[in-house]
Prior knowledge:
Elements: H1 3-22, E1 28-31, H2 35-41, E2 44-57, E3 65-78, E4 84-90, E5 92-94, E6 97-99, E7 112-120, E8 123-126, E9 133-138, E10 144-147, E11 153-156, E12 163-165, E13 172-174, H3 175-185
Parallel strand pairs: 1-11, 4-8
Antiparallel strand pairs: 2-3, 2-7, 3-4, 5-6, 7-8, 7-9, 9-10, 10-13, 11-12
Amino acid sequence: MNYKGFLRRGGNIFLLLLGLTASPALALTLQLSSAEKLTADSDLIVAGRVVSIEYAWEDETRRAINTLLTVEVEQYLKGSGNAAVVVRQLGGRIGNFGDEIPGVPQFEAGEEVVLFLVSHRGDYWIHSMALGAFRVFSDETGEKLVYNNLPDVTVIDPATQQTLRGEDVFGVTVLGEFIAQIKSYVR
Length: 187
């Protein structure tokens, strides 16, 4: 069978599948950090609610898209500021253009969060792209809990060189206890 016959008989699908299996999986790898270290290294820590999500070109070259989250601050755990803070993240979608960055957390308007933020070039960014993003939810009794959702993230413990799955890093904690713990680390 010649090349054209191969393609007509489904060879193009075979080549596509072969290319997909040969491609490396995209993921984000981060160094493990404790809640105490995240607190110390963050410029601002807020508990609040995502009220809007917008997308913008990173700069005039239009080579990268950023997501801009506006978070209505219910409580400043470290630092102080206005009633709302804008958080910049890598990735997003504008028209037919999209930047998807593995491991960068995706948020929805109305979602309750605790964010560890670092200041860089006049903007606030989530500490370590994903480690500093905690989501709040209520259990069946109505108690508020917090967790760090890291589905596309591999975390390496620098002390042991052990690899951890992202979802195994922080676990689920009662929100009030988590906030008290973070406040105890603020100096």
